[in-house]
Amino acid sequence: MKKAALLFGLMLPLMVSAQDDLINKLDKNESDSAKKKFEFKHIIDLDNTTVKNQGSSGTCWSYSTNSFLESEMIRMGKKPVDIAEIYTARRVYEEKAERYVRMHGDFSYGDGGACHDVINMYAKYGALPQSVYSGLNYGTDKNRFGEMQGMLKAMLNVVVKNPNKKITPNWKKAFEAVLDVYLGEVPETFNYNGKLYTAKTFAKNVVGINPNDYMEFSSFSYQPYYQKTMLWVPDNWSLDKVYNVPFNDIITIIDNAVKNGYTVTWATDVSEKYFSWKNGVAFVPEKDWSDMEDEERKDLFNGPKPERKITEDMRQEAFDNYTTTDDHGMHIVGMAEDQNGKEYYIVKNSWGEKNDYKGYLYVTKAYVQYKTTAFLLHKGGVPKSILSKF
Fold first, then answer.
1. Which one, of 279, 373, 264, lies nearest residue 44 by Cα?
2. Which residues are bridge partners to 152 per DSSP?
3. Of 52, 172, 212, 274, which residue is least crowded by CB atoms under 10 Å?
4. Which helix (H) or strand (E) is 335 found in, with range?
């Protein structure tokens, strides 16, 4: 098995990244007339920074949650900074590598992560501005991590194979050296707006959030509600726990947050045919894709459609049978309604601006209730009636 893992690691540079593959797949779920047949009226627009592009890297969790932190700065009355997403990701790669070696390779390693990773790395390592750490140190204008991650994984598999019969401490230096070559060295100090900072003092004095103020939620019917439970998804490499709430509370919490000026970082499944990146719309049709006729499939995004009623059992079954997986992280920044009065969340993505809404999507509450894997927000956005139950 470890020989197979080593071979897979060496093959990674030759493979299309999972993120590119996902975007290409989603781009096929589109309609040329969708934008003309959906009429969206914005009800709530919360301040957020410019749309970014994560490129060929599985770093959506870092882009979405750092976008969230930038909005938190605005909410707190601060001037937002462009936070370096790849600095956060680099720290996760370092931590994940150590855990991979300690677990003798029987552990997930790759680009993936979770909302809480950004908060955890912020608390432990601080933050850097994008102007100081772009992560583009290898001749490209946007992230392309296939070669780098292939080398890193192969290196870790050699360490785990333990050819010297005793692992030396030098592997960490070698691992960090590869990160330095591809992403750039992390500065011990740097100047920003005429002042000298470290990553920790920049986080404390400029970004200024308190990591203890943030809560992450999900909903699993097989665990007791209103207690913390393990987030059993592959990208939860740190084995963090989340607050478990009934599935109806997902919408209750997010609605309360948005209506009171709090944005939300959102982890979800985007593999369904009824999530369209190109059209910027996601909803849950009454029929499964496999039960639709060809004409129904072609008409899927040609204006609003009736939706399925989501139940607790339906949501849990989708996790259990792998039709809900931890695919992607985005940022909920407002609320809108269509021409029929149905409410949608306004969602900021990190795939650039090449869709009908310049990088944003409109996602129904049924989709969020059904396909959310986890979401994170400031505790001030959580209804007190729910907080009191924990």
1. 264
2. none
3. 212
4. strand 328-337
Looking up tokens 């938190």, which residue turns up?
72
Cα 259 from Cα 252, distance rounded (Å): 11
Q: Within a 13 Å sphere around the CA of 294, how many CA atoms are in the beta-carbon half?
A: 0
β-bridge partners, 229:
242
Torsion sign, CA atoms 292, 296, 302, 305: negative
Do residues 286 and 366 lie in contact, with contact meaning Cβ atoms separated by under 8 Å? Answer: no
229 sits in which H/E element? strand 227-230
Q: Is the dihedral of CA 133, 62, 114, 2 positive or negative?
A: negative
The two three-digit tokens of residue 253, written as one number: 């919490």
> Which positions ≥6 away from 56 have C-beta within 8 Å?
17, 19, 20, 142, 143, 144, 145, 146
What is the per-residue pLDDT across 156-172, written as a single tens digit (0 to 9) for each? 999 999 999 999 989 99
Which position has the token pair 């209750």? 252
6 confidence band (pLDDT: 50, 70, 90): very low
* Phi, psi for residue 148 in degrees, rounded to 5: -60, -50
pLDDT in tens, 27-78: 556 666 678 899 999 999 999 999 999 999 999 999 999 999 999 999 999 9
Architecture of the domain made up of 2-387: Alpha-Beta Complex (3.90)
Residue 18 contacts residue 325 (beta carbons within 8 Å): no
Joined tokens for residue 214: 């943030």
Q: Where are the alpha helices (DSSP H) in the chain?
A: 2-11, 18-26, 34-37, 60-75, 85-102, 115-125, 146-161, 170-183, 199-202, 247-259, 294-298, 312-320, 365-371, 384-387
> How far apart (Å, rounded) are the C-alpha atoms in residues 288 and 308?
10
CA 338 – CA 353 distance, rounded (Å): 22
Instruction: Report the residue count for the chain.
Output: 390
Do 369 and 353 contact (CB within 8 A), yes or no?
Answer: no
Query: Is residue 234 within 8 Å of 112, Cβ to Cβ?
Result: yes
CA 265 to centroid of chain Cα atoms: 8
Q: What pLDDT, on the 0 to 100 scale, is given for residue 237?
A: 93
Q: Which of 109, 50, 120 is nearest to 81 (CA)?
A: 50
